[in-house]
Protein backbone atom coordinates (compact mmCIF):
# COMPACT_ATOMS: atom_id res chain seq x y z
CA UNK A 1 0.00 0.00 0.00
CA UNK A 2 1.42 3.34 -1.03
CA UNK A 3 2.12 5.72 1.87
CA UNK A 4 0.57 9.18 2.23
CA UNK A 5 2.37 12.52 2.69
CA UNK A 6 0.14 15.36 3.91
CA UNK A 7 1.00 18.99 3.15
CA UNK A 8 -0.04 21.18 6.08
CA UNK A 9 0.26 24.93 6.48
CA UNK A 10 -1.42 28.32 6.45
CA UNK A 11 -2.97 29.74 3.23
CA UNK A 12 -0.55 31.19 0.68
CA UNK A 13 2.59 29.56 2.04
CA UNK A 14 3.07 27.70 -1.26
CA UNK A 15 1.38 24.34 -0.67
CA UNK A 16 -0.33 24.36 -4.06
CA UNK A 17 2.86 25.35 -5.86
CA UNK A 18 4.79 22.55 -4.19
CA UNK A 19 1.94 20.10 -4.82
CA UNK A 20 1.81 21.01 -8.52
CA UNK A 21 5.57 20.54 -8.83
CA UNK A 22 5.53 17.16 -7.13
CA UNK A 23 2.60 15.77 -9.12
CA UNK A 24 3.37 17.22 -12.55
CA UNK A 25 4.12 13.80 -14.07
CA UNK A 26 0.66 12.52 -13.22
CA UNK A 27 -0.95 15.67 -14.57
CA UNK A 28 0.58 15.06 -17.99
CA UNK A 29 -0.68 11.48 -18.08
CA UNK A 30 -4.22 12.25 -17.01
CA UNK A 31 -4.51 15.16 -19.46
CA UNK A 32 -4.28 12.65 -22.31
CA UNK A 33 -7.87 11.54 -21.69
CA UNK A 34 -10.49 13.99 -23.05
CA UNK A 35 -13.34 14.78 -20.68
CA UNK A 36 -11.40 13.70 -17.61
CA UNK A 37 -11.39 16.12 -14.69
CA UNK A 38 -9.07 15.95 -11.74
CA UNK A 39 -9.22 17.32 -8.22
CA UNK A 40 -6.09 19.40 -7.68
CA UNK A 41 -5.78 18.48 -3.99
CA UNK A 42 -4.40 14.97 -4.18
CA UNK A 43 -2.04 13.13 -6.48
CA UNK A 44 0.68 10.55 -6.87
CA UNK A 45 4.43 11.13 -6.73
CA UNK A 46 6.94 8.91 -8.50
CA UNK A 47 10.62 9.44 -7.78
CA UNK A 48 13.17 6.70 -8.44
CA UNK A 49 11.91 3.54 -6.76
CA UNK A 50 9.61 5.43 -4.41
CA UNK A 51 5.93 6.11 -5.04
CA UNK A 52 3.56 7.77 -2.63
CA UNK A 53 0.43 9.89 -2.47
CA UNK A 54 0.56 13.56 -1.57
CA UNK A 55 -2.42 15.52 -0.22
CA UNK A 56 -2.79 19.28 0.07
CA UNK A 57 -4.92 19.49 3.20
CA UNK A 58 -5.81 23.15 2.61
CA UNK A 59 -8.36 25.14 4.55
CA UNK A 60 -6.27 26.24 7.51
CA UNK A 61 -7.65 29.70 8.20
CA UNK A 62 -5.57 31.93 10.45
CA UNK A 63 -7.19 34.12 13.11
CA UNK A 64 -5.74 36.55 15.62
CA UNK A 65 -5.69 33.76 18.19
CA UNK A 66 -4.07 31.25 15.85
CA UNK A 67 -6.22 29.03 13.61
CA UNK A 68 -9.94 28.42 13.97
CA UNK A 69 -11.42 25.30 15.51
CA UNK A 70 -12.84 24.01 12.23
CA UNK A 71 -9.43 24.25 10.62
CA UNK A 72 -7.87 22.36 13.51
CA UNK A 73 -10.32 19.51 12.92
CA UNK A 74 -9.22 19.36 9.30
CA UNK A 75 -5.62 19.14 10.41
CA UNK A 76 -6.60 16.31 12.77
CA UNK A 77 -7.96 14.31 9.85
CA UNK A 78 -4.78 14.84 7.87
CA UNK A 79 -2.63 13.77 10.79
CA UNK A 80 -4.60 10.56 11.35
CA UNK A 81 -4.38 9.47 7.73
CA UNK A 82 -0.84 10.50 6.83
CA UNK A 83 2.37 8.50 7.15
CA UNK A 84 4.51 11.65 7.01
CA UNK A 85 3.54 15.27 7.71
CA UNK A 86 5.19 18.01 5.65
CA UNK A 87 4.63 21.33 7.43
CA UNK A 88 5.14 24.28 5.08
CA UNK A 89 5.86 27.79 6.39
CA UNK A 90 6.57 31.09 4.64
CA UNK A 91 10.14 32.32 5.13
CA UNK A 92 9.18 35.84 4.03
CA UNK A 93 6.41 36.16 6.62
CA UNK A 94 8.53 34.68 9.35
CA UNK A 95 7.10 32.79 12.30
CA UNK A 96 3.39 33.61 12.86
CA UNK A 97 0.82 32.83 15.54
CA UNK A 98 -0.86 30.47 13.08
CA UNK A 99 2.38 28.56 12.54
CA UNK A 100 2.80 28.16 16.28
CA UNK A 101 -0.77 26.89 16.68
CA UNK A 102 -0.31 24.27 13.97
CA UNK A 103 3.11 23.29 15.31
CA UNK A 104 1.64 22.78 18.78
CA UNK A 105 -0.73 20.19 17.35
CA UNK A 106 1.91 18.51 15.23
CA UNK A 107 4.22 17.95 18.20
CA UNK A 108 1.63 15.71 19.84
CA UNK A 109 1.09 13.36 16.90
CA UNK A 110 4.14 11.14 17.13
CA UNK A 111 4.12 11.03 13.29
CA UNK A 112 7.26 11.65 11.24
CA UNK A 113 7.37 15.39 10.65
CA UNK A 114 9.37 17.64 8.35
CA UNK A 115 9.18 21.43 8.38
CA UNK A 116 9.98 23.28 5.15
CA UNK A 117 10.55 27.05 4.92
CA UNK A 118 9.34 28.15 1.49
CA UNK A 119 10.08 31.28 -0.61
CA UNK A 120 13.77 31.47 0.28
CA UNK A 121 14.76 32.97 -3.08
CA UNK A 122 14.82 36.51 -1.67
CA UNK A 123 16.35 35.81 1.71
CA UNK A 124 19.54 34.23 2.93
CA UNK A 125 19.20 30.65 4.14
CA UNK A 126 20.29 31.39 7.70
CA UNK A 127 17.86 34.28 8.12
CA UNK A 128 15.02 32.41 6.35
CA UNK A 129 15.10 29.39 8.62
CA UNK A 130 16.54 30.60 11.93
CA UNK A 131 13.37 31.60 13.77
CA UNK A 132 11.53 28.41 12.80
CA UNK A 133 13.92 26.40 14.96
CA UNK A 134 11.96 27.83 17.90
CA UNK A 135 9.03 25.58 16.95
CA UNK A 136 10.97 22.54 18.15
CA UNK A 137 10.23 20.51 15.03
CA UNK A 138 13.78 19.88 13.89
CA UNK A 139 15.89 21.60 11.26
CA UNK A 140 13.75 23.44 8.67
CA UNK A 141 14.39 22.51 5.04
CA UNK A 142 14.90 25.70 3.00
CA UNK A 143 13.12 25.59 -0.37
CA UNK A 144 11.62 27.69 -3.13
CA UNK A 145 8.71 25.75 -4.62
CA UNK A 146 8.22 28.27 -7.44
CA UNK A 147 11.87 28.02 -8.52
CA UNK A 148 12.35 24.32 -7.66
CA UNK A 149 15.21 25.14 -5.29
CA UNK A 150 15.93 22.69 -2.51
CA UNK A 151 13.13 20.31 -3.58
CA UNK A 152 15.44 17.37 -4.20
CA UNK A 153 16.99 17.69 -0.75
CA UNK A 154 13.54 18.04 0.81
CA UNK A 155 12.26 14.88 -0.90
CA UNK A 156 15.36 12.98 0.22
CA UNK A 157 14.37 13.80 3.80
CA UNK A 158 10.69 12.99 3.22
CA UNK A 159 11.47 9.62 1.65
CA UNK A 160 13.86 8.72 4.44
CA UNK A 161 10.90 9.01 6.83
CA UNK A 162 8.46 6.95 4.78
CA UNK A 163 7.71 3.32 5.70
CA UNK A 164 10.13 0.82 4.11
CA UNK A 165 9.41 -0.28 0.55
CA UNK A 166 7.15 -3.30 0.45
CA UNK A 167 8.50 -6.24 -1.50
CA UNK A 168 6.45 -7.00 -4.57
CA UNK A 169 5.07 -10.49 -4.04
CA UNK A 170 2.33 -12.29 -5.91
CA UNK A 171 -0.34 -13.61 -3.60
CA UNK A 172 -1.32 -16.65 -5.62
CA UNK A 173 -3.36 -18.16 -2.79
CA UNK A 174 -5.61 -15.11 -2.75
CA UNK A 175 -6.48 -15.48 -6.44
CA UNK A 176 -7.88 -12.53 -8.37
CA UNK A 177 -7.94 -9.36 -6.27
CA UNK A 178 -11.05 -7.26 -6.90
CA UNK A 179 -11.36 -3.69 -5.58
CA UNK A 180 -14.88 -2.38 -5.06
CA UNK A 181 -14.48 1.38 -5.60
CA UNK A 182 -16.94 4.25 -5.58
CA UNK A 183 -18.13 7.32 -3.71
CA UNK A 184 -19.82 7.01 -0.31
CA UNK A 185 -23.36 5.64 -0.34
CA UNK A 186 -23.30 4.24 -3.88
CA UNK A 187 -23.80 0.72 -2.49
CA UNK A 188 -20.30 -0.76 -2.16
CA UNK A 189 -20.99 -2.67 1.06
CA UNK A 190 -24.35 -3.85 -0.27
CA UNK A 191 -22.64 -5.20 -3.39
CA UNK A 192 -19.98 -6.97 -1.32
CA UNK A 193 -22.63 -8.59 0.86
CA UNK A 194 -24.68 -9.56 -2.19
CA UNK A 195 -21.66 -11.16 -3.88
CA UNK A 196 -20.75 -13.10 -0.78
CA UNK A 197 -24.30 -14.15 0.07
CA UNK A 198 -25.69 -14.81 -3.39
CA UNK A 199 -22.86 -17.09 -4.39
CA UNK A 200 -22.90 -18.95 -1.04
CA UNK A 201 -19.17 -18.49 -0.87
CA UNK A 202 -16.68 -19.89 1.60
CA UNK A 203 -15.42 -16.88 3.60
CA UNK A 204 -12.01 -17.15 5.24
CA UNK A 205 -10.91 -15.28 8.35
CA UNK A 206 -9.03 -12.16 7.33
CA UNK A 207 -8.15 -9.20 9.54
CA UNK A 208 -9.12 -5.76 8.33
CA UNK A 209 -6.22 -3.85 6.83
CA UNK A 210 -5.31 -0.25 7.59
CA UNK A 211 -7.19 2.84 6.47
CA UNK A 212 -10.64 1.25 6.59
CA UNK A 213 -9.91 -1.14 3.70
CA UNK A 214 -11.21 -4.65 4.38
CA UNK A 215 -10.06 -7.70 2.42
CA UNK A 216 -12.35 -10.72 2.17
CA UNK A 217 -10.96 -13.89 0.55
CA UNK A 218 -13.63 -16.25 -0.83
CA UNK A 219 -14.32 -18.97 -3.38
CA UNK A 220 -16.78 -19.05 -6.27
CA UNK A 221 -17.20 -22.09 -8.48
CA UNK A 222 -13.96 -23.50 -7.12
CA UNK A 223 -11.94 -20.37 -7.93
CA UNK A 224 -10.33 -18.07 -5.36
CA UNK A 225 -10.86 -14.33 -5.17
CA UNK A 226 -10.19 -11.52 -2.71
CA UNK A 227 -12.62 -8.63 -2.42
CA UNK A 228 -11.16 -5.30 -1.31
CA UNK A 229 -13.89 -3.08 0.15
CA UNK A 230 -13.25 0.56 1.08
CA UNK A 231 -16.69 1.31 2.51
CA UNK A 232 -17.04 3.25 5.75
CA UNK A 233 -16.26 6.90 4.95
CA UNK A 234 -19.70 8.33 5.57
CA UNK A 235 -19.25 11.30 7.86
CA UNK A 236 -20.93 14.58 6.89
CA UNK A 237 -20.76 18.25 7.84
CA UNK A 238 -18.40 21.15 7.29
CA UNK A 239 -15.35 18.91 7.18
CA UNK A 240 -16.85 16.82 4.35
CA UNK A 241 -14.34 18.24 1.84
CA UNK A 242 -11.38 16.98 3.84
CA UNK A 243 -13.08 13.63 4.41
CA UNK A 244 -13.66 13.34 0.66
CA UNK A 245 -9.98 13.89 -0.11
CA UNK A 246 -8.99 10.99 2.07
CA UNK A 247 -11.77 8.75 0.79
CA UNK A 248 -10.18 9.22 -2.64
CA UNK A 249 -6.76 8.32 -1.23
CA UNK A 250 -8.25 5.14 0.25
CA UNK A 251 -9.74 4.25 -3.11
CA UNK A 252 -6.41 4.88 -4.84
CA UNK A 253 -4.66 2.55 -2.41
CA UNK A 254 -7.25 -0.17 -3.07
CA UNK A 255 -6.81 0.24 -6.83
CA UNK A 256 -3.04 -0.21 -6.42
CA UNK A 257 -3.57 -3.56 -4.68
CA UNK A 258 -6.14 -4.97 -7.12
CA UNK A 259 -6.04 -6.86 -10.41
CA UNK A 260 -9.56 -5.80 -11.39
CA UNK A 261 -11.62 -2.78 -10.31
CA UNK A 262 -15.41 -2.87 -10.08
CA UNK A 263 -16.29 0.80 -10.14
CA UNK A 264 -19.73 1.48 -8.69
CA UNK A 265 -21.80 4.54 -9.68
CA UNK A 266 -25.19 5.56 -8.33
CA UNK A 267 -27.30 5.52 -11.51
CA UNK A 268 -29.72 8.04 -10.01
CA UNK A 269 -26.97 10.62 -9.39
CA UNK A 270 -24.94 9.95 -12.52
CA UNK A 271 -21.21 10.47 -13.04
CA UNK A 272 -19.55 13.10 -10.84
CA UNK A 273 -16.17 14.84 -11.10
CA UNK A 274 -14.88 12.64 -8.29
CA UNK A 275 -15.93 9.56 -10.27
CA UNK A 276 -13.95 10.69 -13.31
CA UNK A 277 -10.94 11.47 -11.11
CA UNK A 278 -10.93 7.96 -9.68
CA UNK A 279 -11.53 6.40 -13.09
CA UNK A 280 -8.52 8.32 -14.38
CA UNK A 281 -6.43 6.74 -11.63
CA UNK A 282 -7.59 3.27 -12.73
CA UNK A 283 -6.52 4.10 -16.28
CA UNK A 284 -3.13 5.38 -15.18
CA UNK A 285 -2.35 2.41 -12.97
CA UNK A 286 -3.50 0.04 -15.68
CA UNK A 287 -6.00 -2.17 -13.88
CA UNK A 288 -8.87 -4.10 -15.45
CA UNK A 289 -12.08 -2.08 -15.19
CA UNK A 290 -15.75 -3.02 -14.92
CA UNK A 291 -18.38 -0.32 -14.32
CA UNK A 292 -21.53 -1.04 -12.34
CA UNK A 293 -24.51 1.36 -12.47
CA UNK A 294 -26.26 0.62 -9.19
CA UNK A 295 -29.85 1.34 -8.00
CA UNK A 296 -31.08 0.81 -11.55
CA UNK A 297 -34.30 -0.97 -10.56
CA UNK A 298 -35.97 2.09 -9.03
CA UNK A 299 -35.75 4.24 -12.17
CA UNK A 300 -38.33 4.91 -14.86
CA UNK A 301 -37.57 4.15 -18.51
CA UNK A 302 -37.15 7.86 -19.28
CA UNK A 303 -34.68 8.20 -16.38
CA UNK A 304 -32.76 5.16 -17.61
CA UNK A 305 -32.53 6.53 -21.15
CA UNK A 306 -31.26 9.89 -19.85
CA UNK A 307 -28.71 8.19 -17.58
CA UNK A 308 -27.36 6.13 -20.51
CA UNK A 309 -27.09 9.26 -22.66
CA UNK A 310 -25.13 11.14 -19.98
CA UNK A 311 -22.99 8.10 -19.31
CA UNK A 312 -21.94 7.87 -22.96
CA UNK A 313 -21.18 11.59 -22.94
CA UNK A 314 -19.15 11.76 -19.71
CA UNK A 315 -17.35 8.42 -20.00
CA UNK A 316 -16.57 8.46 -23.71
CA UNK A 317 -12.91 7.85 -22.82
CA UNK A 318 -13.94 4.52 -21.25
CA UNK A 319 -15.77 2.98 -24.21
CA UNK A 320 -13.64 -0.16 -23.80
CA UNK A 321 -14.95 -0.88 -20.27
CA UNK A 322 -17.90 -3.24 -19.81
CA UNK A 323 -20.88 -1.59 -18.12
CA UNK A 324 -23.59 -3.36 -16.13
CA UNK A 325 -26.89 -1.98 -14.84
CA UNK A 326 -27.55 -3.59 -11.49
CA UNK A 327 -29.35 -3.54 -8.17
CA UNK A 328 -26.94 -4.59 -5.43
CA UNK A 329 -29.82 -4.60 -2.95
CA UNK A 330 -32.05 -6.98 -4.91
CA UNK A 331 -29.35 -8.82 -6.86
CA UNK A 332 -30.47 -7.84 -10.35
CA UNK A 333 -27.55 -8.07 -12.81
CA UNK A 334 -24.98 -8.80 -10.10
CA UNK A 335 -24.22 -12.30 -11.42
CA UNK A 336 -23.47 -10.96 -14.91
CA UNK A 337 -21.25 -8.26 -13.44
CA UNK A 338 -19.19 -10.80 -11.52
CA UNK A 339 -18.96 -13.16 -14.51
CA UNK A 340 -17.12 -10.35 -16.33
CA UNK A 341 -14.30 -10.54 -13.76
CA UNK A 342 -13.30 -13.93 -15.17
Give the topology:
Layout: E1 4-8, H1 15-22, H2 24-30, E2 42-47, E3 50-56, E4 62-63, E5 66-67, H3 69-81, E6 84-90, H4 97-107, E7 113-118, H5 125-130, E8 141-142, H6 151-161, E9 176-181, H7 188-198, E10 214-220, E11 223-229, H8 240-257, E12 260-266, H9 273-285, E13 288-294, H10 301-314, E14 322-325, H11 334-339
Parallel strand pairs: 1-3, 1-6, 6-7, 7-8, 9-11, 9-12, 12-13, 13-14
Antiparallel strand pairs: 2-3, 4-5, 10-11
Helix pairs in contact: 8-9
Provide a descriptive summary of the structure in words.
- With 342 residues, the protein is of the alpha/beta class.
- The protein has 2 domains: 4-161, Rossmann fold (3-Layer(aba) Sandwich), CATH 3.40.50.300; 174-339, Rossmann fold, CATH 3.40.50.300.
- The protein has 11 helices and 14 strands.
- The chain has helices at 15-22, 24-30, 69-81, 97-107, 125-130, 151-161, 188-198, 240-257, 273-285, 301-314, 334-339; strands spanning 4-8, 42-47, 50-56, 62-63, 66-67, 84-90, 113-118, 141-142, 176-181, 214-220, 223-229, 260-266, 288-294, 322-325.
- A 6-stranded mixed β-sheet has the order 2-3-1-6-7-8, sandwiched between helices. A 6-stranded mixed β-sheet has the order 10-11-9-12-13-14, sandwiched between helices.
- Helix 5 links the parallel strand 7 (113-118) and strand 8 (141-142).
- Helix 8 (240-257) packs parallel to helix 9.
Descriptors:
11 helices; single chain; 342 residues; 14 strands; 22% strand; Rossmann fold; elongated
The count of domains is: 2
- The run of helices and strands is EHHEEEEHEHEHEHEHEEHEHEHEH
Shape annotation: elongated
* Termini separation: 25 Å
CATH homologous superfamily placement of the largest domain: P-loop containing nucleotide triphosphate hydrolases
Strand portion: 15-25%
Amino acid sequence: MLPVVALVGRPNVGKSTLFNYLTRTRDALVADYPGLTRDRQYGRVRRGQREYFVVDTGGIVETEAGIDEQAMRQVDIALREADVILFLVDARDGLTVGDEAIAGQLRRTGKPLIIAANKIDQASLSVATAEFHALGLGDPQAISASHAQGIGELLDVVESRLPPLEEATEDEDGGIRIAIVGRPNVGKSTLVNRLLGEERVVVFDAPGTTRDSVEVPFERHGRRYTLIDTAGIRRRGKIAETIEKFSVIKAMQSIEKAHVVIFLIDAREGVTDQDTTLLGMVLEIGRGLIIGLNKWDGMTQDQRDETKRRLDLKLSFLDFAEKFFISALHGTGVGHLFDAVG
